[in-house]
């Protein structure tokens, strides 16, 4: 199975994609001056990295410039494959007090993803379907089967932290109105049950989990175990993100791990042979995050590392989302594309959503809801309209209902998402052409 992927990687080799080729005699993990000690002193993960990646994705430390190395050394998350999506609109780092994101000062000529393209399929080459080389988990297969017939809905799990009963109660509200629940992060509650345990709790209520895995709290060994546990729990998908720095949440006292970044995590998740049945592997795309013009190329690197589903983050409304999806499809991505839809039905929910997406929501979205006579109904109606507009965009396969809740409001917000899901799924499914060669 692994040989098939590597064979495909070799076929996709394109010297145009590299600034410089990797000399054969160089070790796989080559230390460069300026790289953080914790990065270049540790050997590559034996499972996730078999050999240097053919397009220089996970051996970026070998092929990237010194300017890139300097930026990585200055990044508080030590990202090999920066910049993260937390770059503020004014170019500031997401970590308070750090100043400007270090990657924004890397000259264009040193941007390592600039020429990375997904190779166009060669009809005569009979390239194996890499994703299909592993058996899918039942939940992943079911999700794909559903996506082949109608738009899919993934709802954020908005449940009280560290409450099994709270997770079960929210799951009971959403079951039947979403195809999966994304167990992501919460900026105000960093301490959460492990993703695999939340997946078990959801499964107990008949809800498929889409497990969010971040690199903030676990090193590569712990992450590898967590991914295996999620697979064993029967998740439909694993969502691979770098994660916010602890300095942005309510536990700034915690050490920032960041042994891997999102691209390395994708490779770990997609290449692990410990998975008896493979969940889908998803990544986030933040088209509006600076440097906006270079975000697609970085996303292509994530896809090249093994992602087969893309969640497109809030980026200003259906119009900008359509542009981002069109560019992604034009680049050759044939997997699933799910777009974020904000669900805001109260002042508390608005505050939480604004904390991570205020400048990336459609202009006036929150104000219109909060000034309405019935914000709860107004929020549901606005989300349904937003979802319908997004689902009408060619190349979009579904939506991610994106929400947050203040303490004690989790159940109400989950009910609102269930109502949005009910109305969206109750609408006639649009018939959208699917690209050939999608995930299987
Ligand atoms: S915004 Fe993200 S990538 Fe940029 S320096 Fe800060 S943590 Fe690093």
Automatic annotation (TrEMBL):
Keywords: Oxidoreductase
Keyword Oxidoreductase: yes
Protein name (Swiss-Prot/TrEMBL): Methylenetetrahydrofolate reductase
Bias (Basic and acidic residues) ranges: 1-10
Gene Ontology terms for molecular function: oxidoreductase activity
Native source species: Trebonia kvetii
Biased composition (Polar residues): 38-48
Name of a matching Pfam family: DUF5981
GO biological process: tetrahydrofolate interconversion
InterPro entries: DUF5981, FAD-linked_oxidoreductase-like
Annotated spans, Disordered: 1-50
UniProt keyword DNA damage present: no
Domain Methylene-tetrahydrofolate reductase C-terminal-like: 72-106
């Amino acid at each position: 199975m692994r040989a098939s992927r590597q064979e495909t990687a070799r076929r996709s080799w394109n010297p145009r994609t590299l600034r410089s080729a990797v000399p054969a005699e160089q070790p796989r993990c080559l230390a460069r001056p300026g790289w953080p000690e914790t990065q270049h002193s540790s050997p590559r993960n034996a499972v996730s990295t078999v050999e240097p990646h053919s397009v220089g994705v996970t051996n970026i430390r070998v092929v990237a410039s010194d300017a890139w190395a300097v930026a990585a050394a200055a990044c508080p998350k030590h990202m090999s494959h920066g910049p993260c999506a937390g770059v503020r609109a004014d170019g500031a780092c997401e970590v308070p007090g750090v100043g400007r994101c270090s990657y924004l000062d890397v000259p264009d000529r040193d941007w390592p993803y600039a020429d990375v393209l997904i190779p166009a399929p060669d009809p005569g080459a009979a390239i194996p379907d890499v994703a299909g080389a592993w058996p899918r988990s039942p939940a992943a297969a079911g999700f794909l089967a559903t996506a082949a017939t109608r738009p899919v809905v993934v709802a954020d799990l908005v449940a009280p932290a560290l409450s099994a009963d709270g997770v079960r109660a929210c799951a009971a509200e959403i079951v039947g109105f979403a195809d999966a629940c994304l167990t992501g992060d919460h900026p105000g509650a960093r301490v959460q049950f492990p993703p695999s345990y939340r997946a078990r709790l959801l499964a107990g209520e008949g809800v498929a989990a889409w497990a969010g895995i971040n690199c903030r709290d676990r090193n590569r060994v712990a992450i590898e175990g967590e991914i295996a546990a999620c697979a064993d729990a029967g998740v439909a998908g694993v969502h691979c993100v770098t994660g916010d720095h602890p300095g942005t949440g309510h536990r700034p006292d915690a050490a920032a791990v960041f042994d891997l970044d999102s691209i390395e995590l994708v490779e770990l998740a997609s290449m692990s042979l410990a998975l008896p049945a493979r969940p889908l592997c998803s990544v986030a795309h933040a088209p509006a995050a600076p440097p906006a013009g270079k975000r697609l190329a970085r996303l292509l690197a994530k896809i090249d590392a093994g992602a087969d589903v893309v969640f497109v983050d809030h980026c200003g409304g259906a119009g900008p989302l359509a542009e981002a999806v069109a560019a992604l499809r034009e680049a050759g991505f044939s997997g699933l594309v799910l777009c974020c839809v904000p669900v805001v039905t109260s002042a508390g929910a608005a505050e939480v959503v604004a904390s991570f997406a205020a400048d990336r929501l459609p202009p006036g979205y929150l104000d219109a809801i909060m000034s309405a006579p019935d914000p709860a109904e107004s929020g549901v109606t606005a989300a349904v309209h937003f979802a319908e507009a997004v689902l009408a965009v060619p190349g979009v396969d579904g939506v991610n209902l994106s929400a947050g809740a203040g303490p004690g409001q989790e159940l109400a917000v989950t009910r609102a998402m269930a109502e949005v899901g009910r109305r969206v799924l109750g609408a006639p499914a649009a018939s959208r052409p699917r690209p050939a060669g999608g995930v299987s």
